[in-house]
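Standup notes
- DV: blocked on the single-chain target, sequence here:
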Amino acid sequence: MTFRIKSVREVEPAHRPLPQVLSTIGQPPPTGLQVFLSRQAEEKILLAAPLEQPSERLPDLARTFLGENECGGLLIGNVYQAEAAGYRVTFTAIVDAIPAQEAQAGPTFVEMGATDLLAVTNYLQRLREHQRNVAEADLRIVGWYHTHPGFGVFMSGTDQATQRQVFGMPWQVAVVYDPLNGEYGLFYGKDSTHLPGWYLFDAQAEGFPFLPAPATGLDGVAAPRLSSDLSLRQRLMTELEAVRQGVRAALARYRDPEAS
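- DV (later): unblocked, structure below
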């Protein structure tokens, strides 16, 4: 995946308490950068749509599920410091995930340019205008996310170059999601260091603002309401496995019609 936007400058971490943890994914490192991913951002990443031009040669079920191109967007939040058990903890809070609306995509890349960056900048400005006295409204771009449909969770050479050149601050994060395998992972810093674990939290419960309803997407289209069901992740994974089994069965019948 490649980007065509300028890099983000280093910032001084703001001070705030650690968010209340809803659940722990993997094994967060005891030292170094901690990452808190909001359930709102996770939901948007997990619901990343399959691609718009699937292969015509595959069965309908497979074509609907398997997209051929990557998709992605930008992560907004901030970097903070907190005092916990006598230690100073630096953590990145990923509050929201903003999908790219006009990205050019292919099987192994997504390019996001000035239009998407301007849309995110306008979104952040509107948040600040609606929440002038709320410190949590001071949000910035803290990283990016993209899919690897069917390729697994890793940072390719191009991804690593993007992370190093555009999101190379120690607190900036990349999320890679493989919708076919139902897995995602986090990487951070200029070396795309793999993060073994992170925390989920509720951004709205922590006071982070979202645009007042009815919210609109970056392209002016009404944005879907997010579910408040905290079991969404588990339900998505269960439904994903059912769809994967259906895709395998459809592909088997397509490749060997006599078997059916």
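- Follow-up: The radius of gyration is 19 Å.
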